[in-house]
Amino acid sequence: MSRKLAMVTGANSGMGLATSIGLAKAGMRVVMVCRSEARGKEALAKVRDAAGGDTAELMLCDLGSFADIRRFAAEFNSRGDALDVLVNNAGVVSLKRTLTKDGFESMIGINHLGHFLFTMLLLDRIKAAKQGRIVVVASGAYKAGRLNFDDFNLTKGFNVAKGYGQSKLANILFARSLAKRLAGTTTTVNSLHPGAVATNIGVSRETGFGKSLHVLLKPFFLTPEQGSETALHLALSPEVKDASGEYFYKKQAQALAGKAADDESAERLWKWSMEAVGLKG
């Protein structure tokens, strides 16, 4: 009997790498999705060292490019593999307002829209699994976010907290909306808050800006391994095989506050997202 297959976005470092190692150690084959080939190869070697040589493979994808997401999905889907677990982990924090290749503000464009299109294009392969699980790494920062329906790209009054909070709120609403659409199937979708994890998110690779702050605060953060525990729980545990549309923290379902529980906003976001990424239905 072949091993189950998992896929992790942003698998080259931090929580994504820790999650990939955890899934591989649990006996799954892991597709590590990374933007950088060099960093991806380094991470792949770490997973293979930790869990065995044939446990993982690297596939490249830029979640800031709809064209590259479509290329990736076509390549993966052509293999015909059932995808048992998808962990949407990749995320960016943009200290300055930047745009994706498709012209969207980077945090809403990558954290939400990139993963929205990525998930929708792989959905048939997830539904082909005996019990497919989609795990969306969100954040408690959603509480400070709001959906700017008139200006998702934050052309006016941009700040990093506003952009990141909006994207993480969108993650949760996407998970809830998709769970409703998958009701009656064997595929589940849940989101989670990993806790305050010490990763390189928000640190500029070009300038190193933010690195000293991370060093200063690191003793107060969870390790990536600790931060990955809830994602691994949702991906692997039989305890949550029937849970869907829920939001988890420390392996426990949590009540959602205000905007994240708003069904009308969730449907408006779904409609906008479908149009933004060029999907119909």
Automatic annotation (TrEMBL):
<dbReference type="Pfam" id="PF00106">
    <property type="entry name" value="adh_short"/>
</dbReference>
<comment type="similarity">
    <text>Belongs to the short-chain dehydrogenases/reductases (SDR) family.</text>
</comment>
<keyword id="KW-0560">Oxidoreductase</keyword>
<protein>
    <submittedName>
        <fullName>Short-chain dehydrogenase</fullName>
    </submittedName>
</protein>
<dbReference type="InterPro" id="IPR002347">
    <property type="entry name" value="SDR_fam"/>
</dbReference>
<dbReference type="GO" id="GO:0016491">
    <property type="term" value="F:oxidoreductase activity"/>
</dbReference>
<dbReference type="InterPro" id="IPR036291">
    <property type="entry name" value="NAD(P)-bd_dom_sf"/>
</dbReference>
